[in-house]
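hey all, quick one before standup. I had two proteins in the batch that finished overnight and I want to keep them in one place so we stop losing track of which output belongs to which input. First protein below, input sequence then structure tokens straight from the run.
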Amino acid sequence: MSNHYSNRWELDSLFSGGSQSPALILALQTLKSDLEQMLPSPSAALHTIILALQDFDARCYELQALIDCLLSQNVNDEKAIQLQEQIVVIRALYENLSSVLDEYLSKLSESDFKQLLEHPDLQNITFSIQERREWNRELLPLAQEQLIHRLWINGYQGWNDMYEAFMGQFRIPFPDQAGAERLSVGQAENLLSHPDRKVRHTVFKEWEKTWSMHEGSFAQILNHLAGFRLQLYEARGWTSVLKEPLFCNRMQDTTLNSMWKAVERHKQGLVRYLNKRARLFDSSQLAWFDISAPLPQETLPFISFNEAAELIKSQFSKFSPRMGAFATKAFQNKWIEAEDREGKRAGGFCAHFPISQQSRIFMTYNGSMTNIFTLAHELGHAYHNEVVDPLPRFSQHYRMNVAETASTLCETIVIDSLIHQTTNLGLKTVLLDHKIQRAVVFLMNIHARFLFETRFYAERKKGFVLPSMLNSLMQEAQQEAFCNALSEWHPHFWVAKQHFYATSVPFYNFPYTFGYLFSLGIYAHLQQLGPKSCGKYDSLLADTGRMEVEKLAQKHLGVDLTQPDFWEKALELIEEDISKLLQII
């Protein structure tokens, strides 16, 4: 007998009372006061400053995660909006203190720094300390960096907040037989994968029309975000816009270049897939809104949230008993917000609460196969958090590319298990199609985003980039990344995609492709190991916050990511799936 799981998350065990929580308000006030009162000096023992900041980091992250959850479940929660401003101020205080620490670290002599790293209380966070010292040497003098952090709140971050507020307020018209319905951005986005092409086309036209009407405002936001970033880079003496994102992802430019070159060499299989899909749609080429649509005559029953939970638990358990037990805990403890309702923000995410050692997953679930894979994806993030939770906070800071590795691998576990189990040719076709759709996203869609953002920053250095130019850059990037395999494009994708407006991680794109291909390589490696694989995988995840990706791959997989071999082998796995699908459709 299956369990009944709630599709609404529970937050009161973290802080009771939602955005009006007295405990939450007190925690914010206390943290702010503690940060303001801590004035580290060179005479203080550095190891005590490091440990204090590690504690502050966990507290900041815990509170930020909760406020993000409150705002996401109700974008009109005015109190949560106020709390968001408070946590931004607190984060700036923390960053200023971090800058002071990093300045001290960078000025230590080699012998004094070596002695610091030998302190017994710091043995499990030495990588983080070394990384901070190295990065600080790339920055401006302390006073200037602190000024940047203060200006960040109402400048850089302010533009991002404006974008989020706009997107929460927009409604997309959807004329149907019952009249004109107005959909939230998240609801409209879900309909872009509707089985009825007329519905997809109607929503897409209104989607593009809505963004076109407001493109001037969004161009202002995007230009100012990029302008702030470029001026900051110039002040620091950086010439490449990729310097920060590469550091943020602990990877070398040779690794990034090797990956993209391999991707470009392996796109023809995806083009064949798209062309075959177009013929199934009785068309010479697919349109943008057809890419994620189900196949014609694809008949899949509505899959309830409860059924999705049981399916994921079962498949996770077959791969790893620990992972299966974790998924059960997440569903039983109401860690997942999945209800389809008005007022929620678009998209999905996993929030980590390092002090409580819990996670929360946010999405809008409507019963599609894609929703199941999204749920598995976010549970992969949550499992990653579970593995690193016993570590010191500074050793938990894994970067986006390896975060996407863990989540994407969990998607693959669910898809592959279903493909291997089913004897139904129709279902096998659907599952293989979904699997290759993911490849299209990571190897074509994400590539288009990377190309667009690279070229946008080149144009922004010359001056303000007008909406018409942004549309052109976006469409040209899509045409190149998709090898001109589509008949209709999405020129306003730069408006609709929140990732272009993120302030925490610049170039919120290539880490997805890295994570996808890295996860395929890991998955193949673990399958070769057999029963021993579970512990090996957990060991790899545990190291993601304390080494560069090249060293991580060498240690746990014995491969060199700067060379094409690893990427080529991962891409060959995708080509095998494409061949299997094309043989049966």
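OK second protein, same deal, sequence then tokens:
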Amino acid sequence: MSYKTLRVHEAQQIKLERAAIEISSKIGKQVQWTDVARYMFENMLTDTKHGMIQESKKDQ
């Protein structure tokens, strides 16, 4: 599998890091901000796609 780079603004990275810290403390296992981003990408892509399509229809 090849990898690509995804640029993330610092403010977005900080939000992901804070979420990773909260998740880590609740599950008792170290979670990285990249783990959170990867989970979101893999599990929420369909909802994001539908949401963006609906928003686009509202703007037209």
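Flagging for whoever picks this up: Residues 10-59 form one domain. The chain has a mean pLDDT of 95.
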